[in-house]
Amino acid sequence: MSRTPLPRPTLLPGLPRIWRTPHTLQLGLDPPRAVLLDLPEPRAAGLLDLLDGSRSERLALAEAATFGMRPDEARTLLDTLHTAGLVVPAQSLFPPAMPERLTGEAAALAYSATTTSPARTLRRRASARVVVTGRTRLAPAVAVALATAGIGHLHPDLTGPVEAHELPGSPLTPADLGHPRSQATASALRRAAPTTETRPVRRGAASLVIHLGEDHPTALSAISHAHRRRPLLTASIREGKVLVGPLVPPSTSPCLNCITLHRRDREPTWPLDDPWSSPSGPFKAGSLLLESASPDAGEVGSGIGPGRAGPAAVVPPEPCATATLLAAVAYITAEALTFVDGNTPETLGAEVEISRPGTFRRRTWSPHPACPCTRRSSLPRRP
């Protein structure tokens, strides 16, 4: 054998099988990946069923004899599949103790163009700690989507009670009406992804904070996350559209405040909530947001502890078509996973406007010279 034997060879799940002739089997439909297999007889296709990751290559080749294949024929078939990337070692596809619900996710990652193995990506997601904050109807769906994609620790820090207008396109149910959003979303997470941890994240330990909605002054949010060096992705519903971004990693600009300042330059009357220029100074202003969270709230960005409605937590109906909402949920989830997986999101330094499924408008922004985020690396880190 000219190559190293594969430990527990596994055929990628979900490959269509199409018989072209009684002895020719097409495996896969995507032209760059599909292969034609010449088999000595139709029952030789049974070898494919042995490649399920439960046996060594040596054992699989030995058992191929039961399907009428000689050892050299079975080895040639396995070599062809391995060269085409359709057979991989089991440990590179599935991490140990992976929930069965993630089999499809692992297979999709294997089909993607990334060079990172699915198992490594899923291990990275399993160790990630993501906090979803805000009080918009986007939040429960984004939280559940991330958990079902393999995020291991997802804390929903959502304010206010669940209302009827939030249910379309949401994982929440009529039984959740009137209950705190955080609790209802945590219940939805347990239903969809029972192994996901939902408790508060220790301060400073979040892999990513996703703030959904516009219930914070922009500059205050920018200051809060700048102090803690924690990555932030924002999204909000605005007049039937969903605005996503920018995603601001630690020590990277432009930030939320940069966008506000750019808009202020274009429109002098644009509202500017700028605590950086307040007499009390940026750190004191920023601490109003940082210290407003309850002591046990973890990586809270809302200023109101989980499950607490708060005096202004009732959200008016958000005008957004269900199809647009679901398209935005998919995009936000994809951007968050791209970042957690160690790749470059489209919203890095950009804001994407989703007006309907398939219709996207991307705006890029540069760091604003008046925003202190350009000097963020010199800011003291908050504990």
Automatic annotation (TrEMBL):
Protein name per its UniProtKB record: Bacteriocin biosynthesis cyclodehydratase domain-containing protein
InterPro entries xrefs: Ubiquitin-activating_enz
Superkingdom as given in the UniProt entry: Bacteria
Gene Ontology MF term list: ubiquitin-like modifier activating enzyme activity
Organism: Actinoplanes friuliensis DSM 7358
Segments of this protein annotated with the region Disordered: 160-201, 361-383
Gene3D superfamilies: NAD(P)-binding Rossmann-like Domain
